Amino acid sequence: MTSTTMNNPLCRQHHRSTIPLQTPTAVSVHTPMTCRNRRATRTQRRALKVCAVAADKVSSTVAEIPKVKANKAKLGEMGPETAKDIYRDMFLGREFEEMCAQMYYRGKMFGFVHLYSGQEAVATGVIRNLRKDDYICSTYRDHVHALSKNVPAKNIMAELFGKKTGICRGQGGSMHMFSAEHGLLGGFAFIGEGIPIGLGAAYKIKYRREALHDEKADQVAVNFFGDGTANNGQFYECLNMASLYKLPCIFVVENNLWAIGMQHNRATNPTAGDDSPYIYKKGPAFGMPGILVDGMDVRKVREVAIEAIERARRGDGPTLIEAQTYRFRGHSLADPDELREKKEKEYWQVLSLHHLSCLYASLEWMQLNA
Asked: Which residues pair with 291 in a beta bridge?
């Protein structure tokens, strides 16, 4: 932690969880499978059924773990029911995305499809702490955000197949999920496009509470976006407005180190006193806390998110969270993923397995100490 960070009370690294930014030095090529068969009716039905069965299977599996009194010193502030919910949500998100990849490579799913595989800890760690009436704004990588906000998996999958039973009646597709019922304000294809929408939702909450004296208006709006968005103008404009009016808005940067094919270190200049560019340090410049967290560790993400959500509900204003994470596939399923080094991918996969193993060990510990 640099002296600049330590002297600024608004700027901190969560548990010193800095992850070294990997620099690619080699090229590895993965050629996606293709399929010319366009008859998708049977396969679509099968995918929808498999997805629904998988969700039920995950629910029944974690339900077998008995209710016990967990040792909070080992689990942080996470109880047994919360641990099961987190594990289920992350598992469902990963399996859902893998099914999407299968359908796409078999030629049964069309258009651009951007998968969230590898980044589940961020969505789960933040969204599972929100209420149903809270709002989230997503990007084109929005499937798992919708799942974590309790949008039914079968409706999301139906949307990906363009069916009328989809979340947007099949008219939105992969990049434009929306559900007023669940507080999902949309997935947006252009980077940074959703941030002003989420900010507007936060402004509405503030207006209802202070101008209309609605005491029930204590919702929170969360914006998800990537590291590439942090160099766009609307990001800074929204940081300024959110801080100016103390809006109940949380900005979550899912820094997966790559903006399509542009590495973060090549697109953003290092912050003052650092060797690497840190987005979370942009928060204190606008008078809001900036927090860096290990985005592969759902427990750390959850801890940071709870603090930010409580702060927003109290009326203390916005928070900027930078979650350092990694996507395990290319930018989209049409991307052969040639630019990232194999060693870099393996490093983040091992890190993800380590954190998932710790979470699973916590569940086993609770079972042994029943």
From this structure: 12, 321
Element at 72 (helix H, strand E): helix 72-75
Report which secondary-structure segment, H or E, holds 292: strand 290-294
Q: How many Cα atoms within 13 Å fall on the side-chain side of residue 71?
A: 11
CA distance 283 to 242: 11
Buried b or exposed e, range 168-200, using 16+ CB within 10 angstroms:
beeebbbbbbbbeebbbbbbbbebbbbbbbbbb
SS3 285: helix
Phi/psi of residue 27, nearest 5 degrees: -125, 135
Residue pair 209/251 in contact (Cβ under 8 Å)? The answer is no
Residues 288-306: tens digit of each pLDDT: 999 999 999 999 999 999 9
CA 367/CA 71 separation, integer angstroms: 11
| Separation between Cα atoms, residue 57 and residue 168, nearest integer Å | 26
- Which tokens go with 193? 């496009």
Residues 6+ apart with CB under 8 A from 242: 199, 202, 249, 251, 286, 288, 317, 318
Whether the model pTM is above 0.85: no
